[in-house]
Design brief:
The chain has one domain. It is 43% helix and 14% strand. The chain has eleven helices and nine strands.
Amino acid sequence: MFLSRKTAPFAVLVLLLSLVLPCGQIPTLSSDPAQKSPEEIQALNKQAEKDLIVLVKTYGSQLREDIVPIKHLKNRDKTVSFEKLDNILNNFLIDQDTATSQLDKIFDLFPSSWTLDVEVFFEDTNKPLLNTSSLNKSVWGEEVFDSEKKKFVVYIYQDALTKYKNSELLDKTIAHEIAHANDWRSNKVLNTWEKVAFFKSVANRYGAKDRYHEAWADGYLANISYDSKEETAYHQVMEYWAIITSVYISQNSKDLPEADQALVKSVLERTSPGFDQIKQKASSRQGIWAGILAKPKAEDHNISTDKNGSFVTYTITGGTITVGTK
């Protein structure tokens, strides 16, 4: 969920299945598990089960349920629905046929396997933000598993397109939700022990002192609130993965700490090999969005922050959003 509001040279990757990693160590996934022997795989699965027992105590039983492979998913098939886009496009000087063609190009510039098995809907409505202590805010996007369609569905709501008409923020929103649809819960490429390692790596990075910090992200993560501390902790890790991935894919990977860069890169290498020229692809996507949104160039977009009591206020061209912080 996105509030309007989860490096060093890449060498041979090593699966980290030991206890929580030291903060200075860069977590990665295995690049070629197919080369492992049956004995090695059996040992890795046993270790993953032991790790899960420990992790569930901190993050709740939902983690175990999410790690289990989702065998009932349909075969990968990219679907982007523009059913309601004509209502949204009333805000812009562009017809739906042109928009559909342009948006197809946008989704072809994301990691290829990440946009498969994911259905994307552009909604002409908004939805209130839940499970945080920030009030009167709207969701820009969300990702859910549709049990009837047997696939993950991403919803991009109207505010994401119309509130600020900013192509980078919109691109980051979509990248954020696509990252959710390709984490340890949902990625069909990874096996069970890799999913455990994946989650542990993200949890380790979220708990590290040198993790990625940005005012709005820190405020959002700190205000996530569910019925139990375990569920809250689990969703914070989940959101951290989506946040760092959206920065890596849509903003600038060098804005992330080296360990976060390595983590996202290792998952991309394992699950969507061949996804390269990331900065150029982000620029291309955002250029297309800028044309659709009739938005000035990104450098004309000004974001400033100022503290007001217990809140951080973000003033953005065209409007203001406020996120509570501790």
